[in-house]
Amino acid sequence: MRIKINNNMIESILEQILKKEINFNIDGISIDSRKIKKGDLFIALKGENSHGGEFVNNELINKASHIISDIEIDAPKVTLVEDSRKFLMKLASCFRQKIKTKIIGITGSNGKTSTKELLKDFLKTKYDISYSKANYNTTISLPLSLLACDVDSDYCILEMGASKTGEIKILSDICNPDFGLITNISEAHIAGYKDFDDLIQTKLALYESINSSNGLFFLNKDDFNISNNCDEKSNKVISYSINDVSSSFVGDLSEIKNGIISINNNSFDIPYNTNVF
Description:
- The chain has 277 residues and is of the alpha/beta class.
- The chain has helices spanning 10-18, 58-63, 84-98, 112-123, 141-147, 167-175, 196-209, 224-227, and strands at residues 2-4, 28-30, 40-44, 66-69, 78-80, 102-107, 129-131, 155-159, 179-182, 216-220, 237-241, 249-252, 260-263, 266-269.
């Protein structure tokens, strides 16, 4: 995975983290040696079967502006760190602290990408939007998606995935979302968790991360696993439903096959094919 950098903050953040002067410019960040481009910061990460540092050769060294690794690499452009993955997370977290863009976090067992795409298409009609590409939602790809955010964007929509206990908490700590939404919680991806309740609590970390003084959590009242664990009366919660008319927003999907959804009797065109519904 490679991202293009759309800001001039990364160099100063690197100086802050590494505690040394940075005398090079960074045009992008790559974790894939095959996708490295001239001026990229290459972060060598440990994979399932190999380590990115094993693929550092003269061509990569010549292209990269600098290399971060947690294994020894004999090259002048390399900075050795204790843990490359934690370094990437810290880089993204420090970047988050410096930007004014509002972060929208979306998680759930199903529908994360579809919800992100739909929200992106609605919001971009009025606002400048950044968003995570494809389903980049892991503890590696979400930090990169955040670092790719245009700092002039009004909103950045980040998909947040979890394959084991506690990962949504980790992602929330990195991106500090202003707004949060859990699409649903099911047992579809329970491998990696102690039990279903462990999975539920992992997803609910997004709800817990929203600051009640200036953030909002959008509560799906049609999913018992979510509604039973969130306080609808909290001033940080806005509820929605297609069944419960007492919700803040009530949706009508009767015309969704025709590309129309209704919310509180207001109709909206869905800007892409709805045959999947």
